[in-house]
Amino acid sequence: MQKIRLHPSGREVECTPGDTVLGALEKAGYALPNNCRAGACGECKVKVLTGQFDQGMVLDMALSQEERKQGYGLMCMAKPLSAELVIEWGTEDAKPKLFPPREDQRFVLTDRIARTPRILELRFRPVGQPMRYWPGQYVTLGDERAGAPPRCYSIANAPRPDGEIVLQITRVEDGQTSQWVHDTLKPGDVVKISGPYGTFIGDPSVDTPVLCMAAGSGLAPILSLTEAALRRAYRKPVTLLFSARTAADLYDSGLMKYWETRHRNFIWRPTLTGETREGLLHGRIPAVLPDLFPDLSKHSVFVAGSPDFVAACVAAARALGARDDLIHTEGYFGQAIPQTAPPSHLVAA
């Protein structure tokens, strides 16, 4: 059994042979940022100070050759080879802490609802104990036997006593898992779900106005975060901007109107990019943002959607004064498995 030591805290985590560094840290409750679990996003990039590890197959856009030479690695794919691996991550007290994920938890699909022509909402109930998670986290769902490899999907609801979790899954062209979800899964099916994962959770102690920006099924983690905040009577203004191509691509508008009616501090502002409709904003969020929020220096900002959407919204928010320590992002990557391996899997620091 290898050990992973966190610098500067000095905390140690045991790593079972075959486990990735990310997996070992999550089992111990440590919140190393991550989005894709496939070596594609670069969120879990850290510097390895001492020790050897097998980096596995990752994309050059997520970990450049120069970064590899400097000792950096992607912990979602890295597996320790030496008895001890020392990584530069965390604070002196090694916070934040998360709920350790559990693998292959059994859930029953209780309902499926077509939210848009391409987005399907699935509702699952646990067979055993409810999954403990923070709003904004995600799970993996799939069935290898059916040709549907596990993929990452954000939970779209805040934790509930009955343990129900809601996933909103977009049909992806040539996406094996999304096609399986849309075409095969039916109410009553028992599936295996693993999680929770991810650190798109913000800081519950922060008391600032909140701006959420989402596109497509990027709305899912935003819904979970917003529901949780409103449930605990969050008093500062909460604004949710949602970008859709046409009115047919807008969904959960009824829930948004309910939240607006019940919570005076909640504002729902959808914007359309492909058509104009009376009463709705028109244009991409980065373009309309300055007219809505001339100053974001005191806001907590949450952005979820495709990587290009996230990058554009973050740049627009920063231009309006948003602070990096109050910006939280969740970028959704395609379902393709990385195919490009680095010249050498063995990295020594």
UniProtKB/TrEMBL annotation:
One term of GO molecular function: 2 iron, 2 sulfur cluster binding
Cofactor needs: FAD
Entry keyword annotation includes Cell membrane: no
Record carries keyword Cell membrane: no
Domain FAD-binding FR-type residue range list: 102-203
Keywords associated with the record: 2Fe-2S, Iron, Iron-sulfur, Metal-binding
Record domain 2Fe-2S ferredoxin-type: where: 2-93
The protein's name in its UniProt record: 2Fe-2S iron-sulfur cluster binding domain-containing protein
Organism: Pseudothauera rhizosphaerae
